[in-house]
Amino acid sequence: MTTAKEIMHPGARAIPATETLDRAAQLMRELNVGALPVHDVNDRMCGIITDRDIVTKCIAAGRDPSKVTCGDLCEGTPRWIDAEADVSDVLTEMESHRIKRLPVVEDKKLIGIITEADLARHLTDEQVAEFVERVYAGA
């Protein structure tokens, strides 16, 4: 059984919901990532902020990224997976919610994130094709 922990990109960093989008963009640049999990004051994950969110929901909307917080843009229920979950559970979670990034938690702490690139490195071509079809169908 291949687990989420085995295929994840380790060392994911989260950002507080109270942090501004300009700081989120700076942290993304420093870490060379396109998304950051967002946590509340109790260190509970409350969403994910992406570089695309910053551009389309803030900058393109004429808002100031130094005044808009990560929490302002977080929408919906955050999705995550336990580190010991089987890769089939990872695929089910990502496909059923049509998400491209999935935080991995262990003992209620963020330890990594699974992206499409991680899936491509660890799955068969057939599994990757099925994932792409399910996540991007109708997108």
UniProtKB/TrEMBL annotation:
Q: Describe the location of the CBS domain by residue ranges.
A: 8-66, 73-130
> SUPFAM superfamilies per the record?
CBS-domain pair
Q: Give any Pfam family that matches.
A: CBS
**Domain of life assignment:** Bacteria
What Gene3D superfamilies does the record tag this protein with? CBS-domain
Q: Which UniProt keywords apply?
A: CBS domain
Enumerate the InterPro entries for this protein.
Answer: CBS_dom, CBS_dom_sf, Diverse_CBS-Domain
Which protein is depicted? CBS domain-containing protein
